[in-house]
Design a protein that fits this description.
There is one protein chain. By secondary structure, the protein is an all-alpha fold. The chain has one domain (2-83). Helices cover 81% and strands 0% of the residues. Helix 1 (2-17) packs antiparallel against helix 2 and helix 2 (22-49) runs antiparallel to helix 3 (53-83). The chain is elongated. The N and C termini lie far apart (42 Å). The model has no long low-confidence stretch (mean pLDDT 87).
């Protein structure tokens, strides 16, 4: 439920709070949603596949690759957010 909620409502929060390009923000949004939702598809594929070895290998190698890609996107998003100029929401001391 959290992943679906973030998929539906999380983009506007990311877009409003972080001054990063729109494409990287969208990629980060989808990556976070995938990290929260992927277990659902992963478990369902295991139930559907049974003990078919080639299917198990595809599931067990395919899902971690997508999680690594999502992690790389989020690392890039984080670095872009950290390097972005600070907004003038609070006065400097």
């Amino acid at each position: 439920m959290l992943g679906v909620s973030f998929l539906l409502f999380g983009y506007s929060t990311l877009k409003a709070k972080v001054p990063v390009s729109a494409s990287l923000t969208r990629a980060a949004h989808l990556s976070i949603a995938w990290l929260l939702i992927n277990w659902w598809a992963h478990d369902s594929l295991h139930e559907h596949n049974g003990i078919n070895l080639s299917g198990l290998l595809g599931i067990e190698y395919g899902f971690p690759v997508t999680l690594i890609i999502a992690g790389v996107i989020l690392a890039r998003f984080f670095m872009a957010a950290v390097r972005a100029p600070a907004t003038a929401s609070a006065p400097a001391k």
